[in-house]
Hints:
mainly alpha
Amino acid sequence: xxxxxxxxRVREDLKGQLEETEGxxxxxxxxxxxxxxxxxxxxxxxEKRLGEKEEDSDKDRKNLLRQIDTLHQQLEDEVKVKNxxxxxxxxxxxEVGGLHEDLDNAEKTIGTLxxxxxxxxx
Length: 122
């Protein structure tokens, strides 16, 4: 009888230890599930933030490219205006040179007419 009582007692102790171990296992599984859920949420949040940062970077890059294009166009326009002004200046200098030549010829003609009033102008 003592042997049966001892075996029953050992079985009850083992059963209690098993239930306690199963309870601890369930708690650990619950903790693991909770941590996995938190990890998934953090991962989703980080991916969302990364996506927003990439979107912002793309917007900034596009804006900078637009600004570069605008500056490039302005530079081309300035070069064209400068070249046009240089051409206009050369033309004006040529016209001024022609006017000086015409003025010199007119002064010579006037001088000739003043010195020789009886001859017809050339």
